[in-house]
Amino acid sequence: MTGAATLRRARADELATVIEIDDDACRAYEAAGVVLGIHADHPFAQAERARWQASLEAGTVRFAVDAEGRALGVAVMGQVDGEPYLDQLSVRLDAMRRGIGRALVAEALSWARTTRGAGLWLTTYGHLPFNRPMYERLGFALVQEQAWGPE
Question: Residue 37 region, left (φ>0) first, then alpha (ψ -120 to 50), else beta?
Fold first, then answer.
């Protein structure tokens, strides 16, 4: 990675930091008109946080941190249909457009190769100009729904 940040494995007790980074990054979605309005006690949010905690405990969460140790971005990796899955990629607004997201995706791809999966799956908002195009530049391709697994 550039001198701006380095990557490190997250500890199992860092769920609050994952949530903090994601909440901050979600402001970019809100500015683009995607407002989910889901509270922390909503079943979707609880399930998401449970997945993130499971990934933390499995050692498959990476932070991008600055020289002072502040977490700037996060990649949460897990499994869906037995295949490697990038569950969450978030970068703080004040750290965006510095290569942090690319470095975290590269780390996720490296992790996926070690799991002997067919590739790395992810889900994103395809209609946003800063989401799907970034992933496509990094080599990802749209998979038609009939090719999705049950999960």
Answer: left
And the tokens for 8? 């490190």
Say what the pLDDT of residue 10 is: 98
How does DSSP assign 38-57, residue by residue? --TTSHHHHHHHHHHHHHHH
- Could you state, in chain order, the average pLDDT of each consecutive group of 10 residues for the chain (151 residues)? 80 97 85 76 92 97 96 96 94 92 95 86 83 88 90 86
**Which DSSP state fits 89?**
E
**Cβ count near 31 (within 10 Å):** 10
- Rounded to two decimals, the pTM is 0.91
| Among 91, 77, 89, 98, CA closest to 21 | 91
Task: Answer yes or no: are the C-beta atoms of 73 and 104 closer than 8 Å.
Answer: yes
Q: How many Å apart are CA 75 and CA 82, to the nearest integer?
A: 18
| pLDDT for position 3 | 56
64, 6 contact by CB (below 8 A)? yes
